[in-house]
Every structure is written in structure tokens, then in C-alpha cells.
Amino acid sequence: MPYILISTQIRMEIGPTIVGDESSDPALMEQLGASRRTVLGNNFSEYYVNEPPRVTLNKLENLGYRVISMTGVGQTLVWCLHKQ
Fold it and tell me: What is the sign, positive or negative, of the torsion defined by CA atoms of 20, 16, 54, 29?
């Protein structure tokens, strides 16, 4: 998977950071130290880390990913990364 989205709530800029969904590469999620959870009321799982986005972005850069876009959606910050 050459693309990955990570996100966090603005009020939670120190973490946790959402790093994947139930279809994400398990090996990559393990490298990031991510845990899988299902939030009450959702019918899907997500992977998260208890670190700020900055730490996660640094880890992904070391793995060869580059940020290609970033935006705010309501109270959520979202980064899109790509790996060649």
C-alpha cells in the first residue's frame, strides 16, 4: 500500500493518532506500534498510536513515506502520505 492517511482531533494534537483502518497493512501497523480498536457506535476497526502526529510522521518518513497533502476537516487534522 503506497498511500496512508493519518489523523487526529484538533483537541488531541498530542495523541492519539489514527494511523489505519481494518484494511491496513498489518506489518506497517506493527512497525508503527499501532493497536487495533473498534470505537463504540462504529461498525469498523481502526489502528491508533498513543503518540502525537509529529512522532508518527517522523516514523513514516524513516520508512520512506512523504507527506503529499494535509488538511483540516471540521475538528480533525488529516495527512496523506505516499511511498514510492
Answer: negative
C-alpha cell at 70: 494535509
Who's near 38: CB < 8 A, 6+ residues apart? 44, 45, 46
What global pTM score does this model have? 0.87
C-beta neighbour count of 37 within 10 angstroms? 13
3-state secondary structure the chain: CCEEEEEEEHHHCCCCEEEEECCCCHHHHHHHCCEEECCCCCCCCEEEECCCHHHHHHHHHHCCEEEEEEEEECCEEEEEEEEC
What are 51-84's pLDDT values in tens digits? Answer: 999 999 999 999 999 999 999 989 999 999 999 8
pLDDT digits (tens, 9 = 90+) for 19-49: 999 899 999 999 999 999 988 888 889 999 9
